[in-house]
Amino acid sequence: MGKCLTAEARSNHTAADTSGLCRHVVIIAFEGVEAIDVAGPASAFAKASLAVPGAYRISIASPHGGNVHTSAGLSLADTLALSTLGGTLRPGDPIDTIIVAGGEEAALRRAILDDGAAEWMAQAAQQARRVASVCTGAFVLMAAGLLDARQSTTHWRACDRLESMCAGTQVQRDRVFVRDGNVWTSGGVTTGIDMALGMIEADLGRAVAMDIARDLALFVVRGGAESQVSRSLTLQSGASSPVRDVIAWIESHLDGDLSVDALAAVARMSPRNFSRAFSREAGTPPARYVTRSRVDFAASLLRQTTWTQARVAQRSGFQSVDALQRAFRATFGTSMADYRREA
């Protein structure tokens, strides 16, 4: 999957990638693998190679090669056997990035204990520029000894297990992805796409990564420090239908009228009853929830766009830059300018 350009062809290319390298990305699957853990990052890197021709070459590998069945019942055809990749760990055809996908505990145990994935990973990691895991693939990195004395993350449901099994790693429980040196780990399932975009940004620049995010129709590009589980999703899962509908309305109308009266009308309740119901079920008053949602959206715009602060304020529903600045500093403890500079 993907094709590297010749040196001559790449010398004529003027896109953001100036390294002149074709990066060989190997995604490791196994029986019972989570399909999105493979397909998500692969799609991101494939689109990067369309944006910057020859930037990446993608291989899907598995312990024994051949067809691999995912947990969703889909089949990954003609995967490469890990043993056949040993010969590509040489200067003429190096593996640049190795990404281990995740899966259920039993599937991971088979991959680690019976199929030798951890042993191969420990050897290959000595020569690859970058190693990574998606979701519970972190347990393969752990078994290979690659998480010792490093920060890491995994699916939020598996953080306790990773911490108990690997005392040498500092588990960052609520992170989309973590980069510690040349080792990257991502949280649950779709966070693998966010991590892949982070890698692409590091390799090819932010503009390329943002273009790919738009091609993938992502609502927002999450940085590594963001939460794996969205606040609105958490609240919606435990809220009654009227409050759940209002939360969805808020998220899609951040630059509109989100006063208590307007939201009560959406819920078809009186303002007083609505405020009580929302505060009880969401754990915060409507106005405070609206402000936090607007600030979070403003933060994503600061990371993803070059818009002026005035445009960010308008698009996220604030009446002025000063109003947004005050809310932003109260939420994140920093100014918008500093936040954008450090993003």
Walkthrough of the structure:
InterPro entries: Class_I_gatase-like, DJ-1/PfpI, Homeodomain-like_sf, HTH_AraC, INH-QAR. Residues 244-342 form the HTH araC/xylS-type domain. GO terms for molecular function: DNA-binding transcription factor activity; sequence-specific DNA binding. The chain has 343 residues and is α/β, with parallel strands linked by helices. The protein folds into two domains: 23-216, Class I glutamine amidotransferase (GATase) domain (Rossmann fold), CATH 3.40.50; 231-342, Arc Repressor Mutant, subunit A (Orthogonal Bundle). 48% of the residues lie in helices and 13% in strands. The protein contains 17 helices and ten strands. The chain has helices at 7-11, 35-51, 82-85, 105-114, 117-124, 138-143, 159-165, 191-204, 206-215, 231-238, 241-252, 260-267, 271-282, 286-304, 309-315, 321-332, 336-342; strands spanning 23-28, 56-62, 66-69, 75-81, 97-100, 130-133, 151-152, 170-171, 177-180, 183-186. It has an eight-stranded mixed beta sheet with strand order 3-4-2-1-5-6-10-9, with helices on both faces. It has a two-stranded parallel sheet with strand order 7-8. Helix 2 (35-51) links the parallel strand 1 (23-28) and strand 2 (56-62). Helix 10 (231-238) runs antiparallel to helix 11, helix 11 crosses helix 12 and helix 12 packs across helix 13 (271-282). The longest helix is centred in the last third of the chain and has 19 residues, at 286-304. The radius of gyration is 22 Å and the shape is elongated.
